[in-house]
Amino acid sequence: MALTQDEVVHTAVRLLDDVGLEGLTLRRLGSELGVSAATLYWHVRDKRMLLDLMAEAIAAEHRSSTRPARGQPWWEWLSDRAWKQYQALTGHRDAALVAAGNRSTENSLPYIEELIGSLVDVGFPPREALESILTVGHFVLGSALEHQAVAARGTAGETDATLALRMREATDLPNLIAAIGCESVLDSESTFRHGLMLIMAGLRARHAELNDAPIIRA
Amino acid sequence: MALTQDEVVHTAVRLLDDVGLEGLTLRRLGSELGVSAATLYWHVRDKRMLLDLMAEAIAAEHRSSTRPARGQPWWEWLSDRAWKQYQALTGHRDAALVAAGNRSTENSLPYIEELIGSLVDVGFPPREALESILTVGHFVLGSALEHQAVAARGTAGETDATLALRMREATDLPNLIAAIGCESVLDSESTFRHGLMLIMAGLRARHAELNDAPIIRA
DNA sequence: CCCCTTCTCTAACAGTGTTAGAGACGCTAC
DNA sequence: GTAGCGTCTCTAACACTGTTAGAGAAGGGG
Description:
2 copies of one chain form a homodimer.
Chain A: H1 5-23, H2 26-32, H3 40-43, H4 47-61, H5 74-91, H6 95-101, H7 109-121, H8 126-155, H9 160-169, H10 174-180, H11 188-211
Helix pairs in contact in A: 1-4, 4-6, 5-8, 5-11, 6-8, 7-8, 8-11
Chain A binds a DNA duplex through residues 2-3, 25-27, 35-39, 41-43, 46-47.
């Protein structure tokens, strides 16, 4: 049976997990598919386009529950969406880097439309809803990027442990040492959750400012 | 006079502004310095290391006022730091991408130490101060990345205007259209400011929770 | 049967990061 | 002065990359 674009994209994602972004070469992907590298150009215009499709496939993995469940507070729902997005990005090796260079196609627009709708429904003006969703998205991307940069640093170069050790020896970084504490190293997941909490707190404050104040409400 | 590493890094940054990350090749950089490509390997171990040094040089551009001015609220000071960092990243072409792939050296540790110190001084526990600063950093990186991705999309491929136009024709994206409004396109600077405002609001709420409540409550 | 679309191939091109090894420059020690 | 030595730069090449031109196999419809 003839090779299809979906097949190319999906085995490209699987190959990315194995060999990382640097190892993802068209010849390698071709041999994975039992096909020459040139053949891939029949299914995909560019390597750039392939990466775009990959980024979209990864982002679409966890796209669900585009509306809050019944009785679920909107901030919990939004937090959950951000968390899923973060998981999708950190779940595949170097996926954040792929998404970073990505020029997003317009396939994500309906999804964003639904997100905005949910925030508009609870009282945010459309413009502000969009800006807030973008804010969450930027935070997610930056966090995933940093998470994977740390991971990449671990494989090659000096590990985090030695870095932490050197810090402990330095007496001129008291606050940093106090921040990391006795635990070996700061894990990026708790940092992500903290940041998400901050943004949600800001969003709720803003929501109260917008909706409670004008309408005299108890 | 012999070439120095600083010279290499700085003309590399200048070259990046001209030709972008894709155009930044070692041979091109060499010819810019009147030197062969192989020579650069005397001053720099890798291309990866060169990029790391460039990212650090760019990040260090706007590093100043590591403490709030007298009488300046801490959140305004922190906002300003984030804004300067954002400017440094968006001020150089593709700088966010360079910073994204960067394995950060430890030169930034003293800077982070000072930032934490300023937040600890106003009553944040060290751990939370660090996580909050990282949160701001991730948001800045993600925002800069998206800003430059949009810019790159503008040069090659279909422009934002046509994209916006197509959206306007679609009747199934009412909220998105309402969000963008009659203005041509959403500018990333105002989105950044909005996100920053959200994080600062969250931070202030958390600050109140930490410092005011315990006195009254427990 | 022949044409035509769809898919895949081989061969090559221009360019990349990177390395080995050979020099040129300037300083210091005899 | 000159021999030696570290510092810096060169040429030539290697292995690889994305990408393209053009040739060919497979199979269905006139």
